[in-house]
Amino acid sequence: MTTRVLLLIAFACSIGTARAVDLRTLPPMNETKMSPDVELKGREVEAIEVALRQFRENRYSTSGDLKHFTVELRREGSKLFVSFFPEMHESSHGITPARNKYGIFITYAVSLRTLKIIGYHYERD
After folding, report:
1. Model pTM greater than 0.90?
2. Residues 6+ positions from 119 with CB-CB distance below 8 Å
């Protein structure tokens, strides 16, 4: 009797968690007709991660996230330049040239060979 009750409880719990997905309701995925928005090599993604880690360690974002930032990437040979630009905020615009309410304008130069920051530059607006 106890075994039946335990099996019934286990069966009832498993029914609630298992859900089937109707494949007809999913949007079509035709990769041959769609071009990618952005295409990055693995080494470039690793370089972005190095710059992002340094940006967060230095606490250059006042909120701690990138919600009010635009990230720009430029590649020159074996270097990747990763720029963090905070959104424009008019009332704090003239306080400091490289800083506003949301954070600091900065560009990191990351070596794609060693994945180390080889330089940085504070931007002027």
Report:
1. no
2. 108, 109
